[in-house]
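Encode chain A's predicted structure.
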Amino acid sequence: MLLSSFGAIDLPCFDLIISGSPNPYILCSEKNTLDILSEKSKLWPILFELLFNNSENTDLASAIRAAYNLHNSRKTDHPVIYLLLKMDYFLYMKLKEL
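Encoded structure for chain A:
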């Protein structure tokens, strides 16, 4: 729900990084939110598979480093919004839905 809300905002530069163990997953980089977060985007199945199958012991620091490195490598300056979600909270929500 949170990401689909971002899809309603026209952000020209959107990165989606999921913390992993030991390395993060960069699902998209410098994509327009209207495209990458659309209802028919190929991102959704990949995202949900990662979230449901990802380990609880992910390396959040490596995901933050990846976001920082992506931002610093850009030639154009875009506004930055960092959104950090803890995997154990997602797992709690997943179990609650079952």
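The chain has one domain: 2-97.
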